[in-house]
Specification:
Shape of chain B: globular
Pfam family, one (chain A): SBP_bac_5
Number of helices of chain A: 15
Helix content of chain B: over 70%
Radius of gyration of chain A: 24 Å
Subcellular location (chain A): Periplasm
Number of helices of chain B: 14
CATH architecture of the largest domain in chain A: Roll
Strand order of the largest sheet of chain A: 8-9-10-1-11-19-12
Oligomer: heterodimer
Number of domains of chain A: 2
Shape of chain A: globular
Helix content of chain A: 25-40%
Number of strands of chain B: 0
CATH architecture of the largest domain in chain B: Orthogonal Bundle
Family (chain A): Belongs to the bacterial solute-binding protein 5 family.
Distance between the termini of chain B: 6 Å
CATH topology of the largest domain in chain B: MetI-like fold
CATH superfamily of the largest domain in chain A: Dipeptide-binding Protein, Domain 3
Distance between the termini of chain A: 41 Å
Largest interface: A-B, 62 and 55 residues
Order of helices and strands of chain B: HHHHHHHHHHHHHH
Domain Solute-binding protein family (chain A): 73-434
Number of strands of chain A: 21
Structural class of chain A: alpha+beta
Largest sheet of chain A: 7 strands, mixed
CATH topology of the largest domain in chain A: Dipeptide-binding Protein, domain 3
InterPro entries (chain A): SBP_5, SBP_5_dom, TAT_signal
Number of domains of chain B: 2
């Protein structure tokens, strides 16, 4: 029995396969019970950059800017900014009424300390730091950032959804712990307080409305706009078993399940008390990365052979099943449906798969039957499904596959090793990227081609790096588009990694809950419960 | 007896020391890196290295082991790499659900299985006996999670008698506490009911053939007195042994049950810690489990004396 059949059978067994009535009537309408994607194992959004930590932190800490659903950075904690004519000096003014959860006002010195803690851990933050001349608090509500060269994407850096987000915390905490040390005090600046003594890591986390929070005017849109809480209390209930989460949602024991697996979606669709929709239109990009340092994938032709042979449809069907609304082919590296999306140079990934071409490229690349150490984390359904497809693909191509079934923790360690595959290294591993991280090259480490300094696999691509530099200095959308085309073309030509397709996921909630936004993370402001 | 108990308790110290050394060494050589997990997917190798250094994971084996043993000797289990909470606090948060689940399961298993086994032996070869044996085979064969799903479907979703998941602390009342544990206890207990029932039946069959049982019958003693006073007491030692072994096995079974019913217990804590390579938590929980295991064995040895006066320590 495969994973999909097993889960479906389990869910059917638990749920009965048909609509169940709303049974639990005792729930407090002011409490929203939420099943997150994973366990909230730590609560420092700078130290731990997991998405689940970011999602919880977005309730507790506010940001200077926030991107909306059009990916525009809008003022959030700041009233506004002025920029000198040369683009080097940025002066920001905080809006009135901002308070931390301990009741103290948010001051410019807190902002400066928070930025200083965030920047070393963030790709965009690191770029700004590299050109930073001065970052100071001018007075209690004003701070100034002086740069050595223009950085037009500064507001985007401060308001993006990519982890780590530049959250604002008190100076005493931000300076006490560097960004590689975990904080032990959770004094937030956002609309919800973290109730530390009710936190049971691995089981539950509780957030209580912060009455002194002053939201902006206007409707909320992602991290921007008025973060007005419609409930007083949000309880996160961690459920490791999807079938149990489905049953709990049907039974009214929880109100919102962040990421139901696609196998259970048909079951929940039949329940009149449950609503389902695409969670995040920016979706995810599946990928596997080949090790550019060692044979066989140090050969560009061999990497291209894999692209010529791979069928993205095979990967996507393994991930999302038969629901065609949940996936798209992706002849490129950027998120479909976003302004920067491009398919330039992506022909090798389009059309019928060409095994003959793949075998020819393999030969031209000098493949000498070297073993391909294919690392596949079995405890992550996305990596496992992709790994099975890849192993089959490589075998059909005539490659010598050494399939290493392992867990995600081990993958995380082994992929960092630059040793030859025979000495504890690796040839390829599987992963995926949140589409929100891939809307542009700003925080998209995985697409970079900086060789030994690049992300795992260490691809080197001058074309990609030239394109990234052009994008950062682009003055307008047209120039950005040219740069993006260049990045995509070079990334495919050098095969910085192999995109296996674009896929979406659902989110599910009880019919008495309203105001859920589609987006890269669950936004709790604007959500109401009848 | 007192001297024996003291000797046995003192004997736990070298056992715990060996367990500690074994667990620490195993984790040291095991693949996986908590720093990589913490750093996340976007982290650079330098970031991972800095986190590893900040956690002290770059120190040599002996230095780390020495520091850990020194902390343990002072009663400090350390701090979780991920949550930044003391391991003792995390165990404290999780021990009540697991303990509750084990107690309810054990009570259920004993109260159901022992009478079943006794009756099956008494009515050997009848339909009752065959039904008990069929149940036992079923209990052994059907995995705990399947039983769990079926129970949740029938009693939670269909009949709406009990909740699907979760745990309510005992401090919030007996019934709220119990209603979250009934289904998990039945699911977890199914294997142990089957095991204990079979052992009870087999042991009782042997005892019921003994001369003193025939004598008791000849004296005109009632069936109930013969079964539960004379026969069962003499069959108790193997049954207690199997209950003790079962109790240790419950620790493992609780991992699955806690996941299926979303109970925040020690089983899930252990699995989460292993997957993340949260070394201090793994070490702390394994030490606790081994300590409990040693105590359970001691309790079983002492219980023998209650049923068999020939056993003396």
């Amino acid at each position: 029995m495969d994973r999909r059949s097993f889960l479906k059978a389990g869910a059917v067994a638990v749920s009965g396969g048909y609509a169940a009535p709303a049974l639990s009537q005792g729930a407090n309408a002011r409490t929203l019970r939420f099943v997150p994607q994973a366990n909230l194992a730590n609560f420092d959004p700078i130290w731990g950059t997991q998405y689940v930590v970011r999602n919880a932190s977005a309730m507790v800490w506010d940001t200077l800017y926030g991107v909306n659903d059009k990916l525009e950075p809008l003022p959030q904690m700041v009233e506004g900014e002025t920029v000198s004519s040369d683009g080097l000096t940025w002066t920001f003014k905080l809006r009135a009424g901002l308070r931390f959860h301990d009741g103290t006002p948010v001051l410019a010195k807190d902002v400066v300390a928070s930025i200083a803690r965030w920047a070393p851990r963030d790709p965009m933050g690191q770029m700004v730091r590299a050109i930073q001349k001065e970052l100071v608090a001018v007075d209690d509500t004003t701070f100034r950032w002086v740069l050595g060269s223009p950085y037009p994407k500064l507001k985007y850096a401060l308001g993006k959804t990519n982890t780590p987000i530049c959250f604002i915390m008190p100076e005493r905490i931000a300076t006490k712990f560097d960004s590689f040390t975990q904080i032990d005090e959770y004094v937030g600046s956002g609309p919800m307080r973290f109730i530390r003594n009710e936190w049971v890591p691995g089981a539950s986390a509780v957030f209580q409305k912060f009455d002194q929070y002053v939201p902006r005017q206007g409707a909320p849109s992602w991290l921007s706009g008025g973060k007005v809480m419609g409930v007083d209390r949000v309880e996160w209930v961690v459920m490791p078993d999807p079938a149990t989460a489905a049953a709990a949602l049907q039974n009214g024991e929880v109100d919102w399940w962040e990421n139901p697996i696609t196998d259970l979606v048909p079951l929940m669709r039949r329940n009149r008390n449950i609503r389902l929709d695409i969670a995040d239109p920016l979706g995810n990009i599946g990928s596997f990365r080949m090790n550019h340092l060692h044979a066989p994938f140090n050969s560009k032709k061999i990497r291209q052979a894999v692209l010529a042979a791979m069928s993205q449809e095979d990967y996507m069907r393994a991930l999302v099943g038969t629901d065609d609304a949940l996936w798209k082919p992706l002849p490129g590296f950027f998120t479909p449906g976003t302004p920067a999306y491009t398919e330039a140079g992506g022909d090798i990934l389009k059309g019928p798969r060409n095994m003959d071409l793949a075998k020819r490229l393999l030969q031209e690349g000098g493949y000498n039957n070297e073993p391909v150490i294919c690392i596949v984390a079995q405890d992550q359904p996305i990596t496992k499904a992709q790994g099975d497809i890849t192993a089959d693909l490589l075998k059909r191509m005539g490659m010598n596959v050494d399939f290493v079934a392992t867990d995600w923790g081990t993958t995380g360690q082994r992929r960092a090793m630059k040793n030859p595959p025979a000495n504890g290294g690796w040839s390829m591993f599987h992963t995926w990227h949140a589409g929100a991280d891939c809307v542009n090259p700003a925080a998209y480490n995985a697409v970079r081609g900086t060789g030994q300094n690049a992300w795992f696999g260490w691809p080197e691509s001058k074309g990609v790096e030239d394109g990234v530099a052009e994008w950062f200095s682009a003055a307008d959308a047209a120039a950005e588009k040219v740069a993006m085309d260049k990045i995509n073309t070079s990334a495919i030509d050098d095969v910085v990694y192999a995109p296996t397709g674009f896929f979406l996921g659902y989110t599910a909630w009880r019919a008495n809950v309203s105001g859920i936004q589609k987006g890269p993370l669950p936004f709790f402001w604007g959500v109401n419960k009848a | 007896m007192f001297a024996y108990i003291v000797r046995r308790v003192l004997a736990t110290i070298p056992v715990m020391a060996i367990v500690a050394l074994f667990v620490f060494s195993l984790l040291y050589i095991a693949p996986g890196d908590p720093a990589a997990v913490i750093a996340g997917d976007q982290a650079t190798p330098d970031d991972v290295e800095r986190i590893r250094a900040s956690l002290g994971l770059d120190r040599p084996y002996l230095v780390r082991f020495g520091a850990w043993v020194w902390d343990i000797a002072r009663g400090d289990l350390g701090v979780s790499i991920f949550t930044n909470l003391p391991v003792s606090t995390m165990i404290q948060q999780r021990i009540e659900p697991t303990l509750s689940l084990m107690i309810v399961t054990l009570i259920l298993a004993i109260t159901v299985a022992v009478p079943m086994g006794v009756v099956a032996a008494w009515r050997q070869g009848t339909t009752i006996d065959r039904a008990v044996m069929a149940f036992a085979v079923l209990g052994f064969s059907v995995p705990v999670f399947v039983v769990g799903y079926m129970l949740a479907y029938i009693f939670a979703l269909e009949l709406d008698w009990l909740p699907v998941q979760g745990y309510t602390p005992f401090s919030r009342g007996f019934w709220p506490w119990l209603q979250n544990l009934i289904l998990p206890a039945i699911a977890l207990g199914s294997v142990y009911i089957a095991l204990i029932a079979r052992i009870t039946r087999a042991t009782m069959l042997e005892v019921l053939q003994q001369d003193y049982i025939r004598t008791a019958k000849a004296k005109g003693l009632g069936q109930r007195a013969i079964l539960f006073v004379h026969a069962l007491k003499n069959a108790a030692v193997p049954i207690i042994t199997i209950i003790g072994i079962g109790l240790a096995g419950l620790i493992g079974g609780a991992v699955v049950t806690e996941s299926v019913f979303a109970i925040p217990g020690l089983g899930r804590l252990t699995v989460d810690a292993i997957l993340r390579r949260d070394y201090p938590v793994i070490q702390g929980v394994v030490l606790l489990f081994s300590f409990v295991y040693v105590l359970v064995n001691l309790a079983i040895d002492l219980a023998y004396t209650l049923f068999d006066p020939r056993i003396r320590y």
